[in-house]
């Protein structure tokens, strides 16, 4: 078995768990390929024992012959790790070394159980839809897809107006601070904070949610994910922001038309027997913390 590992800095109280992880992987004779800056942090900053592995420094160098990719960090790290997938056939699993994690949903106390499940082939693959943004200019160095959401936002204190079309049918003009187009996976991210609904992965829909709309009757809208969404952004400023997940680009005001649609490929997430989407919802949103329960 060969596993790629991508990670970021973590708190020192996670050190014993990271050491347990690599001790177990070596005991199982797993071939490892690790993001070099993360390896250097593990060895030089936390004092973990050195171990044999190969390295990659960029998405271009990441291996394409691995069985899994493990992301170590929070949800932001998980989103970054997607750029290092050479193939959409490689499943990803997120180990949470931070705080809340809907994507990095394996807690440090569950690492041993997670490895047991992987080595015993006791898991299933969950497919998560992606969303892509297109424009007349090259954006995001070709990595113009997102797992959570595509967002257009103002760059300063002035409102923007966003004309929106669905399959060339005019929908609305949003006077707003920004507009979010979220996947089901992204429904528990930025979209949730502006009043969007929680959507179960695999529901085949997008949520269109305004940020601080200047019209109180404009609410989040759920549409099927087969539509093409065209957004025309108008602003008094010279520019506005476009983001895919946690990556941001600045567009000039005369570059204000973008198209959003479902990506042709999906992300494969490893689903372990002791942890599912509803378990994550209850734990992360603290559902059921009621003395009547």
Offer a concise description of the structure.
The protein is of the alpha+beta class. The protein has six helices and 17 strands.
Structure description:
With 293 residues, this protein is α+β, with helices and mostly antiparallel strands. The chain folds into two domains: 2-123 and 272-284, Rossmann fold, CATH 3.40.50.10330; 130-264, Probable inorganic polyphosphate/atp-NAD kinase, domain 2 (Tumour Suppressor Smad4, Sandwich), CATH 2.60.200. It is 17% helix and 37% strand. The protein contains six helices and 17 strands. The chain has a six-stranded antiparallel β-sheet with strand order 7-6-17-14-9-10, with no helix packed on it. Strands 13-12-11-8-15-16 form a six-stranded antiparallel β-sheet, with no helix packed on it. It is globular and about 60 Å long. The model has no long low-confidence stretch (mean pLDDT 92).
């Amino acid at each position: 078995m060969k596993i790629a590992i991508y990670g970021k800095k973590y708190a020192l109280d996670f050190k014993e768990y990271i050491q347990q992880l690599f001790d177990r992987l070596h005991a199982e004779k797993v071939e490892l390929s690790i993001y070099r800056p993360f390896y250097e942090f593990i060895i030089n900053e936390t004092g973990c024992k050195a171990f044999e592995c190969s390295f990659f420094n960029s998405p271009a160098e990441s291996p394409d012959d691995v069985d899994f990719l493990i992301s170590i960090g929070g949800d932001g790290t998980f989103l970054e790790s997607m750029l290092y997938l050479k193939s959409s056939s490689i499943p990803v699993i997120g180990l949470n070394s931070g705080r809340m994690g809907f994507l990095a949903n394996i807690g440090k106390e569950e690492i041993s159980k997670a490895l047991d499940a992987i080595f015993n082939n006791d898991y299933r693959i969950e497919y998560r839809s992606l969303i892509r943004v297109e424009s007349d200019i090259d954006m995001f160095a070709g990595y113009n897809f997102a797992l959570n959401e595509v967002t257009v936002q103002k760059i300063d204190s002035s409102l923007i107006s966003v004309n929106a079309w669905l399959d060339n049918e005019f929908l609305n003009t949003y006077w707003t601070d920004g507009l979010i187009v979220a996947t089901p996976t992204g429904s528990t991210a930025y979209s949730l904070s502006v009043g969007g609904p929680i959507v179960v992965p695999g529901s085949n829909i997008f949520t269109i949610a305004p940020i601080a709309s200047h019209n109180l009757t404009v609410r989040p809208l759920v549409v099927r994910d087969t539509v093409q969404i065209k957004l025309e952004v108008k602003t008094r400023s010279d520019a506005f922001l476009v983001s895919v997940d946690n990556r941001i680009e600045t567009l000039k005001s005369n570059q204000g038309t973008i198209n959003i649609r479902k990506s042709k490929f999906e992300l494969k997430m490893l689903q372990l027997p002791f942890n599912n989407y509803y378990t994550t919802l209850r734990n992360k949103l603290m559902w059921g913390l009621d003395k009547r329960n």
